[in-house]
């Protein structure tokens, strides 16, 4: 049994107990029982643990917002009235009640209601910001080196390619479409729950060839210039010789890595279908991309990265301060113009 399964089991069990307590016991007691306090702790701990560990953060955030919102409004409409009526009944029986109404109503409030009232608006704000405006994204691998490196935390614009509903990813407001040369965050076609980040090389209708590690787009060569030879450390710790080159992707000039020791996976005359994109990593010989798993549907587009917020070197346990604020995208230049 995995850690996530244990956490989910604890959360479900504690949720059921708290709901049963809310339905049958909470309105009869004046003090919180120790078993309920322990259940509240398990509920909060398991929810936070799953929230932190899950890959499906968007799903969990959306469901948590819906759940807390439902409890919040049910309390406004129904449960708060029950608590107020109980307060009035007790007040009638006692000549003096040493507490005001607001203080009494807040004491003994079930934890599900208490936390839903506290966190609903915060969760809703985070959901709106993350789904429609901006989202942070961590670079997990070196597939986009030298442009983006592992440990970079980037800010992703969620509205430039259109506003989409969370979870179902349905576009509700059309804006711009990804352009050739853009770096894009998208759902991986093999497993849409995982987000990838690559560069757009082919847009719908493009005919692409890859010959001797050079792209030809609609018959036009994406010219390359060698900048320098650099040692490159692979994930397994081995060091290989790499060429750092500048590629002119029909007006978008950016740097790439190539490993001379590895052969090119040549292909010719590949046409990009409608509503599909051909995504490639800048680390050309160490990237799993559209050459491996195919095209990316337009509906899988997540957003457009803007800047590096901060960068963490896990090997030296240091922040790479110089990378903070770096622009991710490259300004398009007319083909043939020098930098």
Structure description:
Helix content is 33%, strand content 28%. The protein has 339 residues and is an alpha+beta fold. The N and C termini lie far apart (56 Å). The chain folds into 2 domains: 131 residues, no CATH class; 183 residues, Ribbon (Umud Fragment, subunit A). A hairpin with a 2-residue loop joins strand 7 and strand 8. The strands form 4 sheets. Strands 1, 2, 5, 6, 14, 15, 16 and 17 form an 8-stranded antiparallel β-sheet that branches. It has a 4-stranded antiparallel β-sheet with strand order 9-8-7-13, with no helix packed on it. It is built from 6 helices and 17 strands. The relative contact order is 0.11.
Sequence-ordered SSE layout with sheet pairings:
Blueprint: H1 3-25, H2 34-53, H3 57-93, H4 101-106, H5 111-133, E1 134-138, E2 152-157, E3 163-164, E4 171-173, E5 183-187, E6 195-202, E7 207-211, E8 214-217, E9 220-221, E10 224-233, E11 239-249, E12 252-258, E13 267-271, E14 276-280, H6 290-293, E15 296-297, E16 301-313, E17 318-319
Antiparallel strand pairs: 1-2, 2-16, 3-4, 5-6, 5-16, 6-14, 7-8, 7-13, 8-9, 10-11, 11-12, 14-15, 16-17
Helix pairs in contact: 1-2, 3-5
